[in-house]
Amino acid sequence: MNVKIFADGADLTHITRLASDPEIAGFTTNPTLMRQAGVDDYETFAHAMLKVIGGRPVSFEVFSDEFNEMERQARQIATWGENVFVKIPITNTKGESSIPLVRRLSAAGVKTNVTAIFTVEQIDGAIGAVADGPGANISVFAGRIADAGVDPIPYVRHAVANSSAYPHVEVIWASPREVLNVVQANDVGCQIITVTPDILKKLSSLGKDLDVFSRETVQMFYDDASAAGFSI
């Protein structure tokens, strides 16, 4: 498959292990994942992560809700390495668009990852904002769109088609829910999919013979019933 696997997380021990895996093409993280992993010093963690990932692309997210402070943080984060993309949420918590900020950062040469994108209007606005800048990512939150009972594939396909004129812009299938999403992302021409640790563990099942999978599942049920000592 052509889609690139980016590992999503903030556990430095796990990231260090993944850094030795040639199948992992890049990394992403966010403030929620960092908090869950117990990170209490953002910059110290970021520099430690940069030391172990071997120059592969990585996205670090701003965490202010005010655009002036977002811009200050973004410009600072961008100085941490040529492989660093700065995640900018498509809106702040007030619903105010960050597109003007993304456009300013792109014009200043900052590589951005426009994140938390859910709508066609957001997709088109983000692509327009990064069209004349350096490398950029457009993160369509396909998994969360699906959580709303909406098929995310038309949204990702739209992002891929509308960004195709800009080879420096890559679309990310974000918030995956299952291994099937990797296949779907590849089939629609999405360049990147972020993969969480639970899905990474399942990637070995990709393309597995379903008859074999069925027998292994039955074996699991049988072994667990035997281990439990069930009787009727």
In CATH, the homologous superfamily goes by the name Aldolase class I
> Rg to the nearest angstrom?
19 Å
Overall residue-averaged pLDDT value: 97
> Structural class of the helix and strand makeup?
alpha/beta
Question: First CA to last CA: what distance?
Answer: 48 Å
Q: From the coordinates shown, what is the CATH architecture?
A: Alpha-Beta Barrel
Question: Would you state the CATH class?
Answer: Alpha Beta
What are the secondary-structure elements, in order, as H or E?
EHEHHEHEHEHEHHEHEHH
What count of structural domains?
1
State the low-pLDDT regions, or none. Answer: none
Q: Biggest β-sheet: count, sense, barrel?
A: 8 strands, parallel, barrel
Strand content: 15-25%
Number of E-state strands = 8
Number of helices: 11
Spatial order of the strands in the main sheet?
1-2-3-4-5-6-7-8
CATH T-level topology: TIM Barrel
Shape: globular
Q: What is the share of helical residues?
A: 40-55%
Q: How would you concisely characterize the structure shown here?
A:
The protein has 232 residues and is of the alpha/beta class.
Topology, element by element:
Elements (H helix, E strand, L loop, with lengths): L3 E5 L3 H7 L5 E5 L2 H6 L5 H11 L5 E4 L5 H12 L5 E6 L9 H9 L4 E6 L2 H11 L5 E5 L1 H6 L5 H11 L5 E5 L6 H8 L4 E4 L1 H4 L9 H19 L4
Parallel strand pairs: 1-2, 1-8, 2-3, 3-4, 4-5, 5-6, 6-7, 7-8
Helix pairs in contact: 5-6, 6-8
In words, what does this structure look like?
With 232 residues, the chain is an alpha/beta fold. The protein has a single domain (4-203), classed as Aldolase class I (TIM Barrel, Alpha-Beta Barrel). The chain is 45% helix and 17% strand. It has helices spanning 12-18, 31-36, 42-52, 67-78, 99-107, 120-130, 142-147, 153-163, 180-187, 197-200, 210-228, and strands spanning 4-8, 24-28, 58-61, 84-89, 112-117, 136-140, 169-173, 192-195. Helix 6 runs parallel beside helix 8. The chain is globular.
